[in-house]
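cron nightly-structures :: item 1 of 1
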Amino acid sequence: MEQHIRDIMGLPYKTVFSYWKQFPDVDTYTNLCAQVFVSTDDVLAKRKAIDMTLGFSINYNRWPAMRIIKSQMLEKLTDEEIRSLSGFFRSNKDLLKSLEDSLGASLKRSLRLVAGLV
């Protein structure tokens, strides 16, 4: 299963991002990663899906992608998964804050606590 996840998540780098990135590509890639995210129980695969999409969505100012990350990824994390990824969330505090600011909506309280946004 792990190899399949790596293959799926690496596909956009071989296809979509092998040329100049277009704004809709970020939405498509984020949607693909969200589908992988909900189909696995592996916390590291979930972290990779968030990590690979969060920066793209913020840097390209793609609200559709940001909404997917918030509603289909971050809000689906359990409190246990959030705790296990606390270092990742703390190191991405600024991106998470930008996500909240762009969407005008707060993330889950447990995620905000772990990331130091509270």
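cron nightly-structures :: done
Helices lie at 2-14, 23-39, 43-59, 63-73, 79-84, 86-91, 93-103, 109-115.
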